[in-house]
Design goal:
Elements: H1 2-5, H2 19-35, H3 39-53, H4 57-60, E1 64-66, H5 78-86, E2 90-96, E3 102-106, E4 113-117, E5 123-127, E6 142-145, E7 149-150, E8 156-157, H6 163-174, E9 179-183, E10 204-207, E11 210-213
Parallel strand pairs: 1-2, 1-6, 6-9, 9-10
Antiparallel strand pairs: 2-3, 4-5, 7-8, 10-11
Length: 220
C-alpha cells in the first residue's frame, strides 16, 4: 500500500452550524486524494480490504448483506461481494431512484450488473434483475456503507447525496439494527469529521490494513 502511505493522515476538527460547509471542503480534499491513486494501488487495496472484511464477525455470521458496487477510485468492493456470494450470503445492491432514495436488487455475480448513467452524475453499476423495493434493506444483517472518511467516534463523512441518510432513517424508523460498516482507505480514518443531528455512527471501519471497531460486535 505504498501509494497510500504518501497521503498525510491528520485529525480534522469541525462542527457547529458551519458543518455542511466544512463537509463540502473535506469531500473535495478526500476526493482529490482518491483521484491521484494509481490503478495498481486501488486493485491491491481492494484485495486487502476484502480479506479483512471477510474476518469481521458481523460478516462471518451474516445471511443478508446490503452492499454497493464501487466506482472510479472508491475502495474496491467486487472481490468482497463475490466472496460473500460464494459463502452463500444474500447480497443486496442499491439502485438509485429519481428522488435519490435507494431501491434494492439481488447480486448474482458481475454479469448481473448494469451500468446506469444518472443524468450528469457518475455512472453506477446496479443490479439488472428484479427490484425489491426500498424496504428490502430492512432484512439486512449488515449494511456496508460507502464514504469518504470516518472519525474516532465512528461518524462517517459521505459524498453528500443523501441517499444513505434515507437508508439509515428508514432502518431507524423500522427499529432495524443491522451492523453498519464503512469501507475506506487507511488515510481516511481521521480524528474528527463534521457531524449533524441526523448523522449516525458506524460500528466498524474496514481498510486495507485492518479493521477498527467503535462498538462491540454484539451491540444492537
Amino acid at each position: 500500500m505504498s501509494g497510500l502511505g504518501r497521503v498525510r493522515e491528520r485529525p480534522v476538527e469541525h462542527g457547529g452550524p458551519e458543518a455542511e460547509g466544512d463537509k463540502r471542503t473535506l469531500r473535495r480534499e478526500f476526493l482529490g486524494v482518491r483521484n491521484r491513486l494509481t490503478t495498481d494501488v486501488v486493485r491491491e487495496a481492494a484485495e486487502a480490504l476484502a480479506e479483512h472484511a471477510l474476518e469481521l464477525p458481523e460478516l462471518v455470521r451474516a445471511r443478508t448483506v446490503a452492499a454497493y458496487v464501487s466506482v472510479e477510485n472508491e475502495p474496491g468492493t467486487l472481490t468482497l461481494l463475490d466472496a460473500l456470494l460464494a459463502r452463500g450470503v444474500r447480497v443486496l445492491l442499491p439502485a438509485l431512484l429519481p428522488d435519490h432514495d435507494l431501491d434494492w436488487g439481488a447480486y448474482g455475480g458481475e454479469g448481473s450488473l448494469a451500468r446506469v448513467q444518472h443524468g450528469g452524475k457518475m455512472a453506477l453499476f446496479e443490479p439488472s434483475g428484479e427490484r425489491l423495493g426500498p424496504d428490502a434493506v430492512l432484512g439486512a444483517d449488515v449494511v456496508l456503507l460507502p464514504g469518504l472518511a470516518v472519525d474516532a467516534r465512528g461518524m462517517r463523512l459521505g459524498r453528500g447525496g443523501g441517499s444513505y441518510d434515507r437508508v439509515l432513517a428508514r432502518l431507524e424508523r423500522a427499529g432495524a439494527h443491522p451492523a453498519l460498516v464503512v469501507l475506506l482507505y487507511d488515510t481516511e480514518v481521521v480524528g474528527r469529521v463534521p457531524a449533524e443531528g441526523h448523522d449516525r455512527p458506524v460500528q466498524a471501519v474496514v481498510t486495507p490494513s485492518g479493521t477498527r471497531r467503535f462498538t462491540s460486535p454484539d451491540a444492537p
